[in-house]
Design a protein that fits this description.
With 145 residues, this protein is an alpha+beta fold. It has one domain (8-144): minor pseudopilin epsh domain (minor pseudopilin epsh fold, 3-Layer(bab) Sandwich), CATH 3.55.40.10. 39% of the residues lie in helices and 32% in strands. The strands form two sheets. A four-stranded antiparallel β-sheet has the order 3-2-1-5. Strands 4-6-7-8 form a four-stranded antiparallel β-sheet, covered by helices on one side. Strand 2 and strand 3 form a beta hairpin. The chain starts with 7 loop residues before the first helix and ends with a strand.
Length: 145
């Protein structure tokens, strides 16, 4: 007897095995996605920090890295009007990455040379579920490892 193809039973066994492998692998993939979101949000904080320093140097005026309700942005004084404005639009880390942000200081100040002018080091903690990442900023405005 020459038979081609698969029987229904063989096909059901293959589908069950694929489902079992997917059920085992999904939690690992979800965990990796959460961890990557926390890391990406922490990198966004570091990027905004660099933009705040660069803004202070480029404008020759103080700039401010501002944290407020899971958002981060850069404010600086307009060289012409003297008014303070958002130089870098606020980035909502919660809506973009689904993380919560907690900073020991809501405003980090940089002088016109791009040097931090805070009396104490500060920390920014980015977290979601069981994952957390911390960005440490020295009193002179450097990111510490």
């Amino acid at each position: 007897m020459n038979r081609r193809g698969l029987t229904l039973m063989e096909l059901m066994i293959v589908i069950a095995l694929i489902g079992l492998l997917a059920a085992i692998g999904y939690p690992r993939l979800a965990e990796t996605a959460l961890r990557n979101n926390v890391r990406a949000a922490a990198r966004s904080v570091v990027t905004m920090h660099a933009k705040a320093k660069a803004t202070a140097v480029n404008r020759g005026r103080p700039s401010f890295l501002v944290f407020s309700a899971n958002t981060v942005g850069v404010i600086a004084q307009n060289p012409v009007s003297g008014a303070f404005e958002w130089v870098v639009p606020r980035l909502d880390l919660n809506s973009r990455y689904g993380v919560n942000v907690r900073a020991t200081r809501t405003v980090f100040r940089f002088d016109p040379r791009g040097i931090g002018i805070e009396p104490n080091p500060s920390m920014v903690e980015v977290s979601r579920a069981q994952f957390a990442d911390t960005v440490r900023i020295s009193s002179i405005g450097r990111i510490e490892p």
